[in-house]
Specification:
The complex is a heterodimer of chains A (392) and B (280). Chain A has 392 residues and is of the alpha/beta class. Chain A is 43% helix and 8% strand. Chain A has helices at 3-11, 18-29, 37-48, 55-67, 82-92, 95-103, 107-123, 139-142, 183-196, 206-215, 248-261, 292-298, 316-319, 333-343, 362-370, 380-390, and strands at 233-239, 264-270, 277-279, 289-291, 304-308, 347-351, 375-377. In chain A, α2 packs antiparallel against α3 (37-48) and α9 crosses α11. The relative contact order of chain A is 0.08. In chain B, 42% of the residues lie in helices and 14% in strands. Chain B contains twelve helices and nine strands. Chain B has helices at 14-26, 40-51, 66-70, 75-84, 100-106, 125-128, 130-135, 167-171, 183-193, 199-214, 224-237, 264-279; strands at residues 30-34, 55-59, 71-73, 96-98, 112-116, 137-140, 145-148, 154-159, 174-178. In chain B, α9 crosses α10. The radius of gyration of chain B is 24 Å and the shape is elongated. Chain B starts with 13 loop residues before the first helix and ends with a helix. The A-B interface holds A 15, 17, 19-20, 23, 26-27, 30-34, 38-39, 42-43, 45-47, 49-52, 55, 177, 179, 182-183, 186-187, 190, 204, 219-220, 222, 260 and B 1, 14-15, 18-19, 21-23, 25-26, 28, 30-31, 33, 76, 79-80, 83, 123, 161-164, 166-167, 170-177.
Chain lengths: 392, 280
C-alpha cells in the first residue's frame, strides 16, 4: 500500500529495507498511528529513518509521495565562474608571457580553449594528452604557460603536478562528524588499537597465579596486576587542499575513524608538504598557524606520526627552499621531513592514491625514500601493514 | 490504547509519543539520539512511570561487554570454593552471575530496560546484542539453558553519536532524534519543572539562555538540563531580575554561569566576547 514511499526513499538513497517496511505495516495494523496523517508521518519516520542526517531527505520524499509533488530536478550543472580564468591568468602569467601568447593566437582564443577544456574535463574521464595539468603534453604546456603544468581548481585528473595553486580556496574543515561508511575503516583501525594496548588488559595475572599456586603446594594463590591503560599517542598530519581535494572524503573517513579509536590523538593540517608551519583549524589557516618547531617541542618522540597525503606535487616543493606553493619556505621540505621523522621514530605516510600508480609520480617516490619506504596505501590492507610497521 | 503521553514533568513532542508507542506496541527497541542534555535518559524513566513498569538501567562504559548484560561466569570464586571444599562448587549454576538483561527477561512483570549511551562501548557491542534484542532470548553455555523473556521488555537505547551503529542493529529499532526544543516548548518545560517560578525571571533567564546558545564557537552548548540546573540556582539565590537583564547587542556574563558553561575554554571565550562587547 505504501510501497511507493519505500521505493521513493530507496531512490533518494535512504537505506530503508523490507524489514522496516514490514515493521511499519505491523505498526499500522496495531493501530499506532490512529488514522491521523500526522501520526502516520511520525510513525513512518521512526520506522524508516535511522539517522538524523536522513531526516530532511525523508521529509522531502514523504512530501513528494503524499502530495503528488514532483521531485526537484537534478542539480543544475555548475557554471564555470569567469573569475577563475581571469585569476588564473593574472596569477600565472608575467607580461612577457602574455605577449608570447598574443603571438600564438591571442589571449582570448587561448582562454576560450581553456574554458572549453575545463567544461569538458568536468564531465569526461581524465587521461589522454589534452587535459590541463598533464605536464608537457597539454597544449598549455606547449604554449609555455608553465613548464610544469597548470593545475586548475576542480578538475578530477590524477597525477598532475602543480606549481602554483591559483586561488585561496576556503577549504572545508575536515568534518569529524562525517561518519558515512566509516565502519569498515574503523574496523580496520581496530588493528591500530591492538598495538595501542600493548599487552592485553588483564586483571588476573594467570601465569603468575599458576606459578605461585604451584609454589604454594597447590593452594590457590591469586596474583593480580593492575589494568593497563591505553597509552598510545598518535600525531596525525593531514594534507588538505590542492591535489588532495579528490581525496578529502577518504581522508575525512580515516580522520573520523581515528578520532574515536585513540585517547591521545593530535592532528594538524598541512598543504602538500609539511614545512615550518602547520595549522589546526582550516577555516582560519592563515591566521592561526602553529610553528612546526612548537609541535616538535610539545609532543615527545613516543608519539606515532602518521602523514596522510597523496604526495602528488612538483619535486621542487620537496627539495628546494622556497618551493612551497603557498609561501616562501626558508628551508626545503626535505629538511623538515627529516626533522620530523628524526624526532618521531615511528612514522608512516598513508597515501590515498592507488599503489600501482606511485612509481609514475616522482614526488611520491621521493617521499617514499624520505620515509624509508614506510608509505602505505589508504586501504584496509595498507592500514594493516602500517600498523605492523608502527608497532614493531 | 494506553500509551505514553507528555506528563506534568516531562514534555514530549507528538513525534516522540508516536515513536515510543510504536516501540511499545511492536515490542521492539527504541533508539533515541539527540544533543546531550535534551532528556534522552529521562525519557526511559518517564516511560517506565507512564506504563507503570519497573525500570532496569544498564549504563554502558567503554569497557562494557555485551556478555556482561547477559551473565558472567565467576570462575575465580569457584576455584576458591574448590580449594576450600565448599559444597556449592558442584553446581556450576552457583557461579553464574546474572546481568541486567537476564533480570529483565526473567522478571514476572513487563519491565522497561534502559541501555544508556550504547555508543560508548566497543564498536562490536551492538552486533553482539542483535539476537538477544530481536528474539529476547539467549543461551547460557555453562548450564545449557536458554533464557527466554517471560514478557518482552520495552527497550530504550540512547546514543550520543560517538560511534556509528551497525545497519543490522538499526534495522531492528525504531528511531527518534530529540531536537533541541524551541522557545515555546522550552517555556512549557520550565513551567513543568518549576511551576512557581516568577514569570519575569523565567523570561529573562530564557533570553540569556538562548543568547548564550547562539555564541559561536562554544564547545558545549548549554542544553535543557543545564538550563534547569541554572534556574534552580537562580531561584535559590533569589536574584533580582535586573541582574539578568540584557539588551540585544550587549553580552553580559550571566550570574552563576558555572551551571551553563561546563568548560573553561567556553568561559574564557565568553569572557572575551563580553569584554569586547563592553568596549564596543
Amino acid at each position: 500500500m505504501f510501497s511507493h514511499l519505500i521505493l521513493g526513499l530507496r531512490n533518494a538513497g535512504l537505506p530503508a529495507s523490507i524489514t522496516e517496511y514490514l515493521t511499519l505495516m505491523a505498526a499500522m495494523k496495531a493501530g499506532v498511528a490512529e488514522y491521523s496523517v500526522e501520526d502516520f508521518y511520525y510513525l513512518s519516520r521512526a520506522t524508516l529513518v535511522k539517522d538524523e542526517r536522513h531526516l530532511d531527505k525523508f521529509d522531502r520524499v514523504f512530501g513528494a509521495c503524499f502530495k503528488g509533488l514532483e521531485p526537484p530536478e537534478g542539480v543544475k550543472p555548475q557554471e564555470l565562474p569567469e573569475e577563475w580564468l581571469l585569476k588564473l591568468a593574472e596569477k600565472l602569467l608575467t607580461p612577457e608571457e602574455m605577449k608570447k601568447i598574443e603571438a600564438l593566437g591571442g589571449f582570448d582564443a587561448i582562454m576560450q580553449r581553456l574554458k572549453e577544456l575545463l567544461a569538458e574535463q568536468k564531465e569526461r574521464h581524465q587521461g589522454g594528452s589534452k587535459w590541463i595539468g598533464t605536464a608537457g603534453t597539454s597544449p598549455f604546456g606547449a604554449y609555455g604557460y608553465n613548464p610544469e603544468g597548470v593545475r586548475i581548481g576542480q578538475d578530477k585528473s590524477r597525477n598532475r603536478s602543480a606549481v602554483k595553486v591559483w586561488d585561496k580556496r576556503d577549504f572545508k574543515d575536515l568534518d569529524d562528524t562525517v561518519e558515512l561508511g566509516t565502519r569498515g575503516m574503523k574496523l580496520a583501525l581496530r588493528r591500530l588499537r591492538r598495538f595501542a594496548r600493548q599487552g592485553a588488559a588483564t586483571e588476573l595475572d594467570l601465569p603468575d597465579t599458576i606459578k605461585s599456586t604451584a609454589n604454594n603446594a597447590g593452594m590457590l594463590d591469586l596474583k593480580l596486576v593492575p589494568e593497563r591503560h591505553n597509552t598510545v599517542k598518535v600525531l596525525l598530519f593531514l594534507d588538505i587542499g590542492g591535489s588532495m581535494d579528490d581525496y578529502v572524503k577518504l581522508t575525512e573517513e580515516l580522520f573520523s575513524a581515528a578520532r574515536s579509536e585513540f585517547k591521545h590523538l593530535e592532528y594538524y593540517y598541512f598543504h602538500n608538504f609539511p614545512y615550518e608551519r602547520v595549522w589546526k583549524n582550516n577555516r582560519r589557516r592563515h591566521e592561526e598557524q602553529i610553528p612546526t618547531w612548537q609541535v616538535l617541542r610539545t609532543y615527545g618522540p613516543d608519539y606515532k606520526l602518521i602523514f596522510v597525503g597523496d604526495g602528488a606535487m612538483s619535486p621542487y616543493e620537496i627539495t628546494m627552499p622556497g618551493g612551497s606553493v603557498e609561501h616562501w619556505n626558508e628551508e626545503a621540505g626535505t629538511v623538515w621531513i627529516e626533522r620530523l621523522t628524526g624526532h618521531y621514530r615511528r612514522a608512516a605516510w598513508l597515501n590515498p592514491t592507488p599503489k600501482p600508480g606511485w612509481g609514475h609520480v616522482r614526488s611520491i617516490t621521493m617521499i617514499n625514500d624520505l620515509m624509508e619506504g614506510r608509505m602505505f596505501p589508504l586501504t584496509v590492507n595498507g592500514i594493516d601493514e602500517m600498523t605492523r610497521e608502527l608497532s614493531r | 490504547m494506553a500509551g505514553f503521553r507528555s506528563t506534568e514533568r516531562y514534555i514530549a513532542s507528538r513525534d516522540l509519543e508516536v515513536a515510543v508507542n510504536a516501540s511499545v506496541t511492536l515490542q521492539r527497541p527504541l533508539l533515541v539520539k539527540g544533543e546531550p542534555g535534551t532528556g534522552k535518559t529521562v525519557l526511559a524513566h518517564e516511560v517506565a512511570e507512564a506504563l507503570d513498569h519497573p525500570l532496569i538501567e544498564w549504563h554502558i562504559k567503554s569497557t562494557t561487554k555485551a556478555q556482561q548484560g547477559l551473565y558472567e561466569y565467576d570462575a575465580v570464586s569457584r576455584l576458591r570454593d574448590g580449594q576450600l571444599g565448599d559444597e556449592r562448587v558442584h553446581d556450576i549454576a552457583n557461579y553464574i552471575v546474572r546481568g541486567k538483561l537476564w533480570d529483565a527477561f526473567e522478571a514476572d512483570e513487563p519491565v522497561v530496560v534502559l541501555i544508556d549511551e550504547v555508543d560508548k562501548a566497543d564498536i562490536e557491542f551492538p552486533n553482539d546484542l542483535l539476537l538477544e534484542l530481536d528474539r529476547m532470548q539467549f543461551f547460557v553455555y555453562e548450564t545449557r539453558r536458554t533464557i527466554t523473556a517471560k514478557h518482552r521488555p520495552v527497550v530504550i537505547i540512547t546514543s550520543n553519536n560517538e560511534k556509528e551503529l551497525p545497519d543490522a542493529f538499526l534495522r531492528r529499532c525504531f528511531f527518534h532524534y530529540i531536537r533541541f526544543p524551541d522557545r515555546e516548548t522550552m517555556e512549557r518545560i520550565v513551567q513543568a519543572h518549576y511551576p512557581d517560578i516568577r514569570k519575569d525571571l523565567a523570561r529573562e533567564a530564557l533570553n540569556v539562555f538562548f543568547q548564550v546558545r547562539e555564541v559561536p564557537g562554544l564547545k558545549k552548548k548549554p542544553a535543557t538540563s543545564e538550563l534547569l540546573d541554572w534556574l534552580k540556582l537562580l531561584m535559590v539565590e533569589d536574584l533580582p531580575v535586573e541582574a539578568l537583564r540584557t539588551n540585544e547587542k550587549q553580552l553580559v556574563i550571566p550570574p552563576l554561569y558555572g551551571a551553563l558553561l561546563k568548560n573553561e575554554q567556553d568561559v574564557h571565550l565568553f569572557e572575551r566576547l563580553a569584554f569586547l562587547a563592553r568596549r564596543g
